[in-house]
Amino acid sequence: MIGLGLRLAVAGGREAAARLVVVAAAVALGTGLLLATLAGINATKTQNLRYAWLNTGIAEYTTTPRAGVDPAWWLIRGDRFRGQELGRIDVAATGPAAPVPAGIPALPGPGEFYASPALHDLLRTVPADELGDRFPGREVGVIGDAALPSPDSLLVVVGQSPETLATQPFAQQVTAVLTTDPAGCMRCIIGLDNTMFTVSLSVIAAALIFPVLIFIGTATRLSAARREQRFAAMRLVGATPRQITVLATVESTVAAVAGTLLGFGVFFAARPGLAEIPFTGATFFPSDLVLTAVNVAAVAVGIPLGAAVAARLALRRVRISPLGVTRRATPKPPRAWRLIPLVAGVAELAYFVGRRPETTDGQTAAYLIGAVLMLAGLVLAGPWLTMRVARLVADRAQRPAALIAGRRLADDPMAAFRAVSGLVVALFVMTAASGAITSFVAERARPAGDSVAATSLTQAFWPERLAEGAEPPTVADIPAGLSAVPGVQAVLTVRENDRQVAQNMADPSGPGLISCADLARAPGFGSCPPGAQVVSVWQDLIGPRDPGVTPAETIWPASTVTDLDSRRLLSVVVQTDGSDAAKERVRTLLATMDPFGEPPASDAEHQASSTLTLVQFQRLADVVILASLPIAGCSLAVSVIAGLTDRKRPFSVLRLTGVRIRMLRSVVGLETAVPLLVVAAVAIGAGLLAASLFLRAQLDYPLHGLGAGYYAMVGGGLVASLGIIAATLPLLRRITGPETARNE
Amino acid sequence: MIEARDVKLSFGETPALRGATLAVAEGEILAVMGPSGSGKSTLLHCLAGILVPDAGEVQFAGQRIDTLDEGARSALRRDRFGFVFQFGQLVPELTAVENVALPLLLAGTKRRAAVAEASAWFDRLDLDGLQQRRSGELSGGQAQRVALARGLVSRPKVLFADEPTGSLDSLTGEHVMDLLVSSAREQGTTVVVVTHEARVAAYADREVIVRDGKVTTAVLT
Ligand SMILES: Nc1ncnc2c1ncn2[C@@H]1O[C@H](COP(=O)(O)OP(=O)(O)O)[C@@H](O)[C@H]1O
Ligand SMILES: [Mg+2]
Known about the structure:
The complex is a heterodimer.
Chain A: H1 2-11, H2 13-51, E1 72-81, E2 84-93, E3 112-115, H3 117-125, E4 138-142, E5 154-159, H4 162-166, E6 172-174, H5 194-221, H6 224-236, H7 241-275, H8 293-316, E7 318-321, E8 324-327, H9 340-351, H10 360-396, H11 400-411, H12 413-444, H13 452-455, E9 456-460, E10 488-496, E11 512-515, H14 516-521, E12 534-537, E13 558-559, E14 569-576, H15 580-593, H16 603-646, H17 648-656, H18 661-699, H19 708-735
Parallel strand pairs in A: 2-5, 3-4
Antiparallel strand pairs in A: 1-2, 1-6, 3-5, 7-8, 9-14, 10-11, 10-14, 11-12, 12-13
Helix pairs in contact in A: 1-2, 1-7, 2-5, 2-7, 2-8, 5-12, 5-16, 7-8, 9-10, 9-18, 10-11, 10-12, 10-18, 11-18, 12-16, 12-18, 16-18, 16-19, 18-19
Chain B: E1 2-11, E2 14-24, E3 29-33, H1 40-47, E4 55-60, E5 63-64, H2 70-80, E6 81-84, H3 96-106, H4 111-124, H5 140-152, E7 158-162, H6 170-187, E8 190-194, H7 198-201, E9 206-211, E10 214-220
Parallel strand pairs in B: 3-8, 3-9, 6-7, 7-8
Antiparallel strand pairs in B: 1-2, 1-4, 4-5, 9-10
Bound molecules: adenosine-5'-diphosphate (ADP) and magnesium ion.
Adenosine-5'-diphosphate binds next to strand 2 and helix 1 of chain B.
């Protein structure tokens, strides 16, 4: 029986072969996505391990004295180059037995440094006054992959003398390099939150795999009628129901095995491209996207097994008797109760607007329940909505195409909706996430662009960062070349304020002081109240401010201080024209002025770091939308073909009687485009509603319009899936050729 | 009205028509008889401008139609001809009355008017009360009568029927033929009906027999 099943599966005619190919392709797509997710989770863990050594000196374990180990002085700071973070570690060995991180042969001596490959390349192509001059000495080697979270990581290990580093308050003596997962270390600050990435990868995978499952289901139904007739014929000649089940199972399993193998191929072929997606904020090494033996075994066995089970379940719906096929159930029209969970979900979320739960757990529960209710509600309500819209179309139709299409959708809205239900899930989840993230980022982000927040760099000399008894740089230390750098518009100095002033977000007075004469030299940083000589300001002349207030609108509070010029320097603020070259030259010059200070940065750069992962997640959400729309398009295409085969005869007769193929094309187009577009609109609307309710309840933020990128993705995805549908249309001409109308 | 002269047509290696010649007069009801596989359907398809012969010519109302392009022939079929086939020609999504109204809708008639005009045929063809049924809810004879109404609703010059009673029992078949003939006469429609049943051919004014791709006999009844 299994042999016969195999023969039928492989040589069962054109339709069987087509079904086999489509199912295998769908399984391959699903397998590829699943493997990519698993590999992504593994790669995130590997990447995190490569971040571990950057937490050396932070994790307590690395600083405890050890016998036989010469401690190394260790100072880590975050610098930047053209928008990318650059990790800088200054080290000094106190003896030959000092700990050495993986990736370099030994700690560099004074006047030496090791650069990561990406930095090494930059150093050779970028003028030294923009980058190279920040690192004293010469490059003695390239940091090995074992120490690189990502092939694009910019890292530098700079050698210093122990005496120099010993005086730096933030330098530490380390006796070991951290090698364990930073997620497991309490105080670690550099690294990834593995749980968060695993959860979001899983959500993304689910949002992608659901449409694929739907696709597989639709594909299995392809020319199911023909197959069932064949089974009925076999029952007639004496096959038992058991044997029929074996036949069906063999067929699906063959497709699933082929698809699974293909899926592994797809994954390995796509791996280099996947590695380029900076999901965690940094790209991956392709070799980090690995599968464990358990992953491979689970997928290789699980998917064919799942397909076999699915085939068995699908056959339960029909009773195949020797006299033919009877459906167990004719579709009943969906009822209005299907709207209840959706309405309940919206109501639940709306209830919490203005009544935010106190605890984090309470909040999670409140929003999660609401979101899940809405999602399930959408899937439940989909067929009902499809039916209502279809009836409306059919009732209003003047043209036959709209009438036929509307009727067909209204007759079996479940089937019509099923093909696009995967899309609903993907669009809802991703729109809600994008909506929440975009608004969150927009609310947090203070005006940047070409405002001083983006164009000015601040180098601060916080008193608490200074070494014991050391003094901050003075005005005389400011490099003479700074104001001469092309693109630099003003160099402003801020002095220390008296620190008894309460300094919090609401308090506009800051830890610094500036003369009104200076402030007036550089427009864009706010102004003095009338009559003031000196005002208290923040070190970057911007400070924490309300969203919506531009730095230029700030009016700083007057200060009564008169000894401004004799006070210590708190910061230097350099206003540039915003060009990369000017900013990087300024950064390099400031670094030479205060080689162990906090590297200078703009307000916008600080912010970009804090919203980086959110922005990355959003980009991924866009990718999900872009991918799931064509998958939904494939499901639709398959149901187009099924719908065509169903009506082969009446359609060919219509063509014989002179009906233009254009009319039949619009029937098919309407039957697919209407559910696709209606469902996309409803899912997007629901996603935005969910995001808006969440933002109102939790953060009291309004919903901001989604970015052009999101709409480009949705639009592009819709066009792609409509394209896939259009690609099936030539089939219409073939299927409805005159020979079909022959009486045989 | 319609004339075929020495029409030849092969499907690949299989010759279906080997020089068929036939003329149908205006208002005439012609039966095309012959054994299965003899080329009756192919001949009908050539006469109706569905297929283009390899050789020979086909004229409708004194004009050659085998030289027209596909678009012009489609338009001709749509505007001048009506069709009834053996089975399965009703669009399953539409009700019976909408199926009948379909040619009118395609020609641009408003839905309400088209449905009203189609309804008139239900009375004439003993189909009263079945207007709102779907094709799956009709018996074979009812479905054929609905198809007949659809073939006649736009008042074609010629009605082509290919085995219109082929899948019906003899009593139902006779009923359908009765209605076909009486409606056609009433409207003055020319009819070409393909059949292999002598009983059906008896309704015609004249019959021809197709054998091996040639119109061989013409018998007056
Ligand atoms: N589309 C086709 N492809 C190949 N052969 C065909 C096709 N249509 C008809 N034939 C062949 O042409 C011959 C005549 O067919 P047809 O006109 O359908 O016969 P009839 O209607 O008298 O039964 C037959 O031998 C048939 O097999
Ligand atoms: Mg025939």
